[in-house]
Amino acid sequence: MLLQKLEKRKRGWMPLRVTKLVHETHDTLRIHLEDADEQGRQFDYHAGQYLTFRFDALSEKPVVRSYTLSSSPEQTGEVAFTVKEVADGFVSTHLVRELKVGDVLKARGPIGKFCFDDEIHRENRFMIAAGSGVTPFLSMIRSAIASGFKGRLGLLVAYRTDQDLIGWEELLEWKTSGALDLYCSLSRQSKTGFLEGRITPELVSSICKTWLDNTTFFTCGPEQMMYSAKETLVAAGLDPAQFEMESFGS
Ligand SMILES: Cc1cc2nc3c(=O)[nH]c(=O)nc-3n(C[C@H](O)[C@H](O)[C@H](O)COP(=O)(O)OP(=O)(O)OC[C@H]3O[C@@H](n4cnc5c(N)ncnc54)[C@H](O)[C@@H]3O)c2cc1C
To answer: What predicted TM-score, i.e. pTM, was given to this entire model?
Structure first.
């Protein structure tokens, strides 16, 4: 089974050189990496997994933070994660404002089991995300499409405003091609073409009601949003085993 194999891929701390920086929004940076020890050879990972980074020089004691890979394994030569600067965030502020091409980061992984697994998950996959919680889904959707996934893919995502649309170009491309049913809400702005407000139980109910049969749900965002989405869907008849969560809290 896929999820049992994943843990075997762990290596020690890897030196990862920054090869490209892409400012996705005013406060979000996509950081492309190559393995500095392996002449740039890409390391193995599965869509949805994350790396744990160790920063030795930012303070007296090493500081550790995790970031999900927003690239997908099928993108050869492209390993990337996407970091959103949080207010007063120690590491995210450093990464978004100060990182340079050529810098070397120290990371361990890949880690995590928040991944699609055809052996245990249902035919269709519906994802619910808020803000930077969309990062694992960028990887998982891209990977599913590249590997010929046959089921339906749906994503409900909430951003603050239209200045905060992480991964938007690709999401729209997948929507336009029919590969993804995309529902996007803005929590602090009213705009034509977007839903309005945070991800509430009412929004989850109204959008997900046609998805309940034969679907596994995945969610990544604030814990309260994830638990209330689970409660709503389970009350509507979802088997709790078909609901997967990833928390960005430490
Ligand atoms: C498995 C995993 C995967 C993750 N993947 C990503 C990813 O792909 N992209 C990404 O941007 N982040 C991701 N994170 C979050 C990331 O690890 C850091 O927690 C985040 O960058 C904040 O770190 P910091 O040092 O800047 O903030 P800190 O200095 O630790 O926190 C500063 C303040 O911000 C608040 N805060 C901390 N984190 C958040 C947050 N995420 N949202 C809102 N407020 C916050 C704290 O409560 C505190 O008040 C992931 C976390 C985990 C556990």
So the answer is: 0.93
